[in-house]
Specification:
This protein has 389 residues and is of the alpha+beta class. The chain is built from 13 helices and eight strands. It has helices at 2-7, 15-31, 37-40, 49-57, 76-88, 94-110, 113-124, 240-253, 262-275, 283-311, 317-343, 352-364, 375-385, and strands at 130-133, 149-153, 156-164, 174-180, 192-198, 204-209, 218-229, 233-234. Helix 9 packs antiparallel against helix 12.
């Protein structure tokens, strides 16, 4: 599917960016091996620290960060190519994903010089993995209603509260937590700040949440008077809302927001090619394939446009919310539609790995519209951006 999209000129990237694509494919041929389709379907939920370290050694973690911190100083469009290739083959990127995509750029933009000097080289070397401390029980995507609190104490702060849907918290080294440093939840966006929390700190408890597929990448994190020093504060006290919005623009705009089911789609296309030797591809299958290709092409063009805005230093929060909403709808539709398409074929005629990948994505797809902001919250943001509410 990626090759098809790349060949379409109206959804293309500059030639000086495209040269990276074959380098990434060569690396993946050497280092990814040949995991099963259902294994690759986990992709950006697949935690493999060894793969992330090898990717970092090649210089492809923290790619947009400055070279002085160990980054590659690549453009966001070059990162787009890298991410597109990793996700299209189902590379296990979860270990470095959050740090590379948003925690590192957040620290670069808002962090102190000491924070940049300490964390960014470790991120680029694949030696510091981050998780996101935003959502909370009874708040979810409504970040302005969070109740976790940081209270001033001598030498720093004490954090009290709970975070939920904290992906891979049980494996990560650090979490950037959004908490209240003043006021009450009714103050909404006012009085919020961000802190870097060492996940090995005393009084940090991580409780895995097992999903329908049997995996436990989601977690609840309990902060029970966790002490963090003054230097753990990211940016300025009370500026957390502005900072987290800049972070969310990075989280919601990239190709990961419509490539979560790409491995399944590619596996189904391979199945159709094999089937051509024994039967004709049906009209229904051709229509489904055409719709998928057209939909993904439009989403890819939107994502490239947003990445171009980010490269220009903009923070397209409303556009990213729309991108995430539409992308989520698409990647959830792939397993739903293919269930019906493959259901018309005798199970023994379908590749078992394809069926296992379909089963996994059917079970996990509901979470796509939770992570990064629920559909209702995102549509509310878009409505406000259009002046409709």
């Amino acid at each position: 599917m990626v090759d098809l999209l790349v060949s379409l000129k109206f959804a293309s990237l500059p030639s000086d960016v495209e040269v990276l694509r074959e380098e990434v494919r060569s690396f993946l041929r050497e280092h990814l091996g040949n995991p099963s389709v259902d294994r690759r379907a986990r992709s950006w939920m697949g935690f493999d620290a060894d793969f992330s370290w090898r990717l970092a050694k090649r210089g492809w973690v923290g790619v947009t960060l400055p070279k002085e911190y160990g980054g590659a100083h690549m453009t966001p469009l070059q990162r787009f190519v890298l991410v597109e290739e990793l996700l299209s083959v189902g590379a296990p990127v979860a270990a470095h994903w959050v740090a590379e995509r948003q925690s590192g750029p957040l620290i670069l933009k808002f962090g102190s010089q000491e924070q940049r000097d300490f964390y960014l080289p470790r991120i680029c070397a694949g030696k510091a993995f981050f998780c996101i401390g935003m959502s909370e029980p009874n708040s979810g995507s409504d970040l302005a209603s969070i109740r976790s609190r940081a209270t001033r104490v001598p030498g720093g702060w004490k954090l009290q509260g709970r975070k939920i849907w904290t992906t891979n918290a049980q494996h990560c080294d650090y979490m950037i937590a959004l908490v209240r440093t003043s006021g009450v939840p009714e103050d909404r966006q006012e009085g919020l700040s961000q802190f870097i929390v060492n996940m090995k700190s005393p009084r940090v408890e991580v409780r895995p949440l097992v999903d329908l597929s049997g995996d436990a990448h989601f977690n609840e994190v309990m902060l029970d008077d966790v002490f963090v020093p003054d230097e753990a504060l990211v940016g300025q006290v009370g500026q957390g809302w502005t900072q987290v919005n800049a972070e969310l623009a990075l989280e919601r705009s990239g190709p990961e927001r419509f490539y979560s089911s790409a491995v399944l789609l590619n596996a189904w296309m391979d199945f159709l090619r094999i089937q051509q030797g024994s039967r004709a591809v049906s009209g229904e299958e051709l229509v489904v394939l055409g719709r998928f290709a057209a939909h993904m092409t439009a989403l890819r063009q939107m994502s490239i446009a947003l990445t171009t805005k980010l490269a220009a230093g903009e923070s397209p929060l409303i556009e990213a919310a729309l991108m995430k909403d539409l992308g989520t709808e698409f990647e959830q539709s792939i397993p739903a539609v293919l269930e019906a398409v493959l259901g018309s074929i005798a199970p023994e005629e379908v590749e078992p790995q394809l069926l296992r990948a379909l089963n996994y994505l059917s079970l996990i797809a509901p979470s796509f519209s939770l992570r990064g902001g629920t559909r209702e919250i995102l549509r509310g943001m878009v409505a406000r951006g259009l002046g409709l509410r």
